[in-house]
Design a protein that fits this description.
Phosphorylase Kinase, domain 1; 12 strands; alpha+beta; three-stranded antiparallel beta sheet; Transferase(Phosphotransferase), domain 1
């Protein structure tokens, strides 16, 4: 989806404003409980700098929780949008990482699938490119699923397929058992598609952690597509192995750079995956 089309999509589902150089999209009128539009964005930044908990922090993203008016929220920074030139450059025409996750959250919710409620997207634009991308959504209470919950996970993924979606990251830690049913988290890779190959990739992805997922999915139409997806997956493994060997031979400082960048971050992290 081009960014022009996305902007039109968001305007029909909320309002845009600008505060202190940040472009902000509020999902609905209730968003005022998170941030009054007349307040400075720096106030919110200061509030987020003292989170109640860190859910995730690595070179890809930073995820933390904070509370406002006795309501718990999750703030997610898409770190790669800021650190990778590719994501900044392509954002001139296409969606940023935050816009993809935000849009998918809205569409999945509209299609009746359970997902944390999106509240706000705010981004900084420099020279027509998006250099910083953040998203706020409501914290969702629930129990993180395990590989033993394969029946529930397969059932949810099948419901996504029936709605015309593929998950593309269907591992147990991306699902919660809530009071309203099974919910999915982190929809950045989800996409609207009825492509049989992509559906088969979902099943293959589940089978890595849950071998019985293929039997439980029980769709004969995926038979040949599962074989094709398995073949392409094996090719990918061979390519990654060759890449690792090349790095070992010629040297690579990527991991060292990532470790150094993380060591200078003053925030202490927790090994928590929920609402990630």
């Amino acid at each position: 989806m081009l960014r022009l089309k996305l902007t039109k999509f968001l305007k029909n589902r909320g309002i845009f404003t600008q505060i202190d150089g940040w472009q902000i999209h509020f999902m609905n009128a209730n968003t005022d409980e998170v941030l009054n539009r007349e307040n400075s964005i720096t106030d919110l930044m200061q509030q987020m700098s003292n989170p109640t908990g860190i859910l995730k922090q690595d070179h890809r993203s930073y995820v933390a929780t904070f509370e406002h008016d006795k309501t718990k929220y999750v703030i997610k920074k898409f770190t790669l949008q800021n650190t990778w030139f590719w994501f900044r450059w392509t954002s001139v025409l296409f969606e940023s990482l935050g816009e993809i996750a935000y849009r998918n959250s809205i569409l999945l919710q509209e299609d009746g699938l359970i997902i944390p409620e999106p509240i706000m997207l705010f981004q900084r634009v420099r020279n027509l490119t998006i250099s910083h991308s953040w998203m706020i959504y409501k914290y969702m209470d629930g129990e993180e699923l395990l590989s033993t919950d394969v029946i529930d996970i397969v059932s949810f993924v099948k419901s996504m397929h029936k709605q015309g979606w593929v998950h593309r990251d269907a591992h147990p830690a991306n699902f919660l058992r809530t009071a309203n049913g099974i919910a999915t988290l982190d929809p950045i890779r989800a996409t609207r598609s009825r492509n049989m190959y992509l559906r088969a990739c979902d099943v293959l992805h589940m089978m890595r952690d849950m071998p019985k997922a293929g039997e439980l999915y029980d769709d004969d139409k995926l038979g040949v597509w599962l074989k094709i997806s398995l073949f392409s997956h094996n090719l990918g493994k061979i390519f990654r192995l060759i890449k690792q060997k090349a790095r070992a031979i010629f040297g690579n400082s990527t991991h060292k750079t990532d470790a150094n960048s993380m060591s200078h971050n003053p925030v202490n992290t927790e090994s928590v995956r929920k609402n990630d």
